[in-house]
Automatic annotation (TrEMBL):
The species this protein was found in: Penicillium desertorum
PANTHER family: 2-AMINOMUCONIC SEMIALDEHYDE DEHYDROGENASE (PTHR43720), ALDEHYDE DEHYDROGENASE ALDH (AFU_ORTHOLOGUE AFUA_8G02310)-RELATED (PTHR43720:SF3)
Protein name per its UniProtKB record: Aldehyde dehydrogenase domain-containing protein
Residues covered by the Aldehyde dehydrogenase domain: 2-191
Superkingdom field: Eukaryota
GO biological process: carboxylic acid biosynthetic process; polyamine catabolic process
GO molecular function, one term: aldehyde dehydrogenase (NAD+) activity
InterPro entries assigned: Ald_DH/histidinol_DH, Ald_DH_C, Ald_DH_N, Aldehyde_DH_dom
Matches recorded under Pfam families: Aldedh
Length: 216
C-alpha cells in the first residue's frame, strides 16, 4: 500500500471499503519504520526531495480543509512524512481526484459491488487496481469491468516479464513487457498490388491502369 514511500506508479492509494478497519491503522503504525534508506531495519525512507514532501503535506492540509476524516497522521521527520490515512472521503475531494505520490491513503465506503466498481472507475487514471474477495466468480466479473490495465486479485504489485504492463485513460500509451511491448518498435505497413491484366478486369481497374507487365 505504501511501498517505496508511496512513490510508485501502482501505489494502492485509493481504497474502497465497506467500512474503515481499525486493523489497517494499527498495522500501518506497527509496520512503518521510518529512517535512513541504508538501514536494513527501515522500510520507509525519505521522499525523493524536500519539494515532494511539501507537496504531500499540502495534500494533507487540503484533505483536512475539504472535510475528510484524518484517522492517521504520524509525526514526520525531515523529508520523511509518515503515513497519512483519510477516511470518509468523496469524489469531490482533491486527494481522491489527484495522485499524491506519497505515503497517503484515502478511503471511500461503498454499498454494493456496482457502487464499488463505479467509484473505482471514477478517475482519470487507470494503471492498476487490486480487489480482495473470497468469491472467485465475483473476482473475475469485477476484474473484467475495472478500467485499469492491470488488475490484481487478493494481492498487489505482482509483475512478470511475459505479462503486459500499462494502463488506461491518462496512464500512458502502449504497453511495456510481453509481446505487446514490441509494437512500440514496429511500423505497420499495407502494400497493395495488381500483377495481371485478368486481375485488373476482375477488380475493375483495367480501364484506368495499363498492363503493369509492359513497364515493370
Amino acid at each position: 500500500m505504501m511501498s517505496y514511500m508511496g512513490e510508485i506508479c501502482t501505489s494502492t492509494s485509493r481504497e474502497h471499503l465497506r467500512g474503515f478497519r481499525r486493523e489497517l491503522k494499527q498495522y500501518t503504525i506497527e509496520n512503518s519504520i521510518v529512517g535512513s534508506q541504508f538501514d536494513p531495519q527501515v522500510n520507509h525512507g525519505p521522499q525523493v526531495s524536500a519539494a515532494q514532501k511539501s507537496r504531500i503535506l499540502g495534500y494533507l492540509e487540503t484533505g483536512k480543509r475539504e472535510g475528510a476524516q484524518l484517522v492517521l497522521e504520524m509525526i514526520s521527520l525531515p523529508r520523511m512524512p509518515r503515513p497519512i490515512i483519510f477516511n470518509d472521503t468523496n469524489r469531490d475531494m482533491t486527494p481522491m481526484r489527484e495522485e499524491v505520490f506519497g505515503p497517503f491513503v484515502v478511503i471511500q465506503s461503498f454499498k454494493d459491488q456496482k457502487d464499488a466498481v463505479d467509484k473505482a472507475n471514477d478517475t482519470e487514471y487507470g494503471l492498476g487496481a487490486a480487489l480482495f474477495t473470497e468469491n472467485i466468480t465475483r473476482a473475475r466479473n469485477v476484474a473484467a469491468i475495472i478500467q485499469a490495465g492491470m488488475v490484481w486479485i487478493n494481492g498487489s504489485q505482482d509483475s512478470h516479464f511475459a505479462i503486459p504492463f500499462g494502463g488506461y485513460k491518462q496512464r500512458g500509451i502502449g504497453r511495456e513487457l510481453s509481446e505487446y511491448a514490441l509494437s512500440a518498435y514496429t511500423q505497420v505497413k499495407a502494400v497493395h498490388g495488381i500483377f495481371s491484366h485478368d486481375l485488373g478486369v476482375a477488380t475493375g481497374t483495367d480501364t484506368i491502369l495499363v498492363n503493369l507487365g509492359t513497364w515493370l
